[in-house]
Design brief:
Layout lengths: L7 E3 L1 H11 L12 H11 L2 E2 L9 H7 L7 H9 L4 E5 L3 E5 L7 H10 L9 H12 L25 H11 L3 E7 L2 E6 H5 L10 H16 L1 E2 L1 H4 L7 H14 L3 E5 L7 E3 L1 H5 L10 E3 L10 H8 L20 E6 L2 E11 L4 E9 L9 H20 L2
Parallel strand pairs: 1-8
Antiparallel strand pairs: 2-4, 3-4, 5-6, 7-9, 8-9, 10-11, 11-12, 12-13
Length: about 400
C-alpha cells in the first residue's frame, strides 16, 4: 500500500489568497453584469444564502453585489422567475442554488416526502389537500389564502398559519417551488410547471452527491477541510472523506499543512497551489455581509484571517462589541474593519452606527489610507442600499 503524501506547507497569506481567488473577491467584476452574471455567480459559489434581516439590504442581494458591482435586484428576479437558472432550496440554510444542480437535491426532497420534516410535523392531510388544490389552479402567495385559523407555533421560525406550513412542507418535499419573491413574500408554484418538465431529472446517487459537495467546495473555497465541505452537514462526512481519499490516490488532490491549523486536515488541487503566489490588489475593498460565504463559517474565517466575526443581532445591546449587524470590511486580503450600518430608507441615508478597526486596521500608520479607500466604497455601497 502506497503511503499518503506528506502535506505541503501553506502560509495563512497563501491560504487567504487562494480562498479569495476561489470566491472571486480578487477582482472588481469577475462575472460581468445582468441576469447571466447572477446565474454565473450562483453557479460558481454553489449557493447564495437567503435571510430575513433587512437593517441593510438582505444578504442574498448583498452577496451578489459584492461580486457584481453593477448588480440590480431585478437581475436576480429574472434569473429566478424568467430564466429559471436558479432556484431556492436548503443547503446549510435556505439559499439560491444553480438549477443545473437540481438533481443533487432530489434525494433530500424524496426523503422529506417519505419521512416528513421535523419542522412541519403538525401539517395535516387536510391542510396539504387545501393548498395543493389552490396551487394547482395557479401560482399563489400566502396572502392569497384568507381563511386560515391561526394556531400556536412549534418552533421560532414556524408560521401560525396552517396553510403556510403546508406550503413550506410541500416546498421541502419538492412538490412546489418558490417561483418569485417580492421582499420576503414568496410565490409558490408547482415544481414541474415552473420548470416545464414532463418529469424531473434523475436523482443523484450518494457517491455523486459526495463528489458534488467536494467539487463545490474546491471551486468556491480553494483550500478545503472536511468541516468546510460539510458545513452543518455531519452525515455527509464519511462519503466525502472517501471521495477525498480517492482523489488523493489519483493525484487530483494534495494534502496541505495550513499555518495555524494544528491537526485539522486541509487539501487543495495542484493548480490552486501553483497560483498561490498571486496576490490581491491592495486597494480592492469589499464590505461583506455576515452571511457571505467568506464569513459564514466563523471558525474557518478566524483561521485564515485571524479575525473572529461576532454576529450580535440577537445579543442584548449592552453586551454587543461590534454592533447589531456589523459588516466585515475586506481590503486586499485582510479584514481591517467591521462597520455597523443601518439603512434609513425614509430619509435616503446610510447611517454609521459604529466603526470598529480590527486586525491590520488597528495599526495607526496605515489607517488614514485605509479609511480613505473604505469611505470611497461606502459611497458606492450607500447608492446600492438606497436604490429603488
Amino acid at each position: 500500500m502506497s503511503r499518503a503524501p506528506e502535506p505541503l506547507p501553506l502560509t495563512k497569506t497563501q491560504g487567504r489568497q487562494i480562498w479569495l481567488r476561489a470566491q472571486r473577491l480578487d477582482s472588481r467584476a469577475p462575472f460581468g453584469e445582468g441576469p447571466q452574471a447572477v446565474a454565473d455567480a450562483v453557479a460558481h459559489l454553489g449557493y447564495v444564502q437567503i435571510d430575513t434581516i433587512n437593517v441593510i439590504e438582505r444578504c442574498h442581494h448583498h452577496i451578489l453585489f459584492s461580486r457584481i458591482p453593477a448588480y440590480r435586484r431585478a437581475d436576480l428576479q429574472q434569473a429566478q422567475s424568467a430564466d429559471r437558472s436558479v432556484f431556492e432550496y436548503w443547503t446549510h440554510a435556505l439559499s439560491y442554488v444553480p438549477s443545473r444542480d437540481f438533481r443533487f437535491f432530489l434525494p433530500a426532497m424524496r426523503e422529506h416526502r417519505r419521512d416528513g420534516h421535523k419542522w412541519y410535523a403538525s401539517v395535516t392531510p387536510a391542510d396539504t389537500r387545501k393548498v395543493m388544490r389552490l396551487v394547482r389552479a395557479g401560482p399563489l402567495t400566502i396572502r392569497d389564502i384568507e381563511d386560515d385559523v391561526l394556531t400556536e407555533k412549534e418552533h421560532l421560525w414556524q408560521s401560525r398559519k396552517p396553510s403556510k406550513r403546508a406550503l413550506q412542507l410541500a416546498f421541502y418535499t419538492g412538490v412546489v417551488t418558490i417561483s418569485a419573491r417580492q421582499g420576503m413574500l414568496k410565490t409558490y408554484e408547482l415544481m414541474t410547471r415552473h420548470f416545464g418538465w414532463d418529469k424531473p431529472p434523475k436523482p443523484a446517487s450518494g457517491t455523486e452527491i459526495a463528489n458534488y459537495l467536494l467539487d463545490r467546495a474546491l471551486r468556491a473555497q480553494g483550500v478545503i477541510s472536511l468541516d468546510s465541505i460539510c458545513h452543518l452537514d455531519a452525515p455527509s462526512k464519511p462519503a466525502v472523506r472517501r471521495a477525498i481519499a480517492s482523489r488523493i490516490r489519483r493525484g487530483a488532490l494534495v494534502p496541505v499543512a495550513l499555518e495555524g491549523s494544528g491537526k485539522q486536515e486541509h487539501w487543495a488541487e495542484p493548480a490552486a497551489l501553483e497560483a498561490s503566489g498571486e496576490g490581491v490588489p491592495s486597494d480592492l475593498v469589499h464590505i461583506l455581509s455576515p452571511f457571505d460565504p467568506l464569513i459564514i463559517q466563523r471558525k474557518r474565517t478566524h483561521l485564515f484571517f485571524d479575525y473572529e466575526h461576532l454576529f450580535e443581532a440577537y445579543v442584548p445591546k449592552a453586551k454587543r462589541k461590534l454592533g447589531y449587524f456589523a459588516l466585515p470590511v475586506l481590503v486586499g486580503d485582510e479584514v481591517v474593519a467591521a462597520l455597523d450600518l443601518k439603512a434609513d430608507r425614509q430619509n435616503k441615508k446610510l447611517l454609521m452606527q459604529k466603526w470598529n478597526w480590527v486586525g491590520q486596521g488597528r495599526k495607526t500608520a496605515a489607517r488614514k489610507e485605509l479609511k480613505r479607500v473604505i469611505e470611497e466604497e461606502l459611497d458606492r455601497f450607500e447608492r446600492f442600499q438606497l436604490a429603488d
